[in-house]
Design brief:
The chain has helices spanning 2-5, 12-36, 43-53, 58-77, 81-99, 104-124, 131-136. It is mostly helical. The two termini are 21 Å apart.
Length: 143
């Protein structure tokens, strides 16, 4: 019974890796679709039109799209994890706020979930299974 409530610090890096793969994978695919039309996406021209309909100009469209595209990739491999997670946390907070008029369950719940996972990765950092750990040294031990 104790093993069910006791934290296994050896598995924390694996847990964060799974969060990074899910978050980064989802946002990389979304960003690639918005930027390049990959994976069934609409491409940058339609993305610009969509942002324009929300009264958001091209700078925000490019910033959001490439935060997802590049930031998502960086999160998956665990490179520059905290700066990428910060960009994605801000991006998903804005997406949540923009989606709120549609209702929480019908619009804001999905970006809110991504916001919360981005925030968790921002707080935790990449942990030891990451490019950051390989290039810059292992993350500090968790007590």
């Amino acid at each position: 019974m104790g093993s069910l409530i006791k934290t296994n610090t050896a598995l924390l890096s694996v847990s964060v890796l799974l969060l990074r793969i899910a978050l980064g994978g989802i946002l990389f695919l979304a960003g690639a679709g918005k930027a390049l039309g990959w994976f069934g996406g609409v491409g940058m021209e339609a993305t610009l039109d969509g942002f324009s309909q929300m009264n958001m100009g091209p700078p925000l469209a490019y910033l959001s799209t490439y935060a997802e595209f590049i930031g998502g990739f960086l999160i998956v491999i665990g490179l520059f994890t905290r700066p990428a997670a910060l960009a994605l946390t801000i991006n998903m907070l804005v997406a949540t706020i923009v989606s709120l008029p549609q209702g929480f369950m019908m619009g804001a719940s999905y970006p809110f979930s991504l916001f919360m996972v981005s925030l968790a990765v921002l707080i935790s950092g990449p942990m030891s299974i990451s490019a950051d750990a390989l290039l810059f040294g292992k993350s500090p031990a968790v007590e």
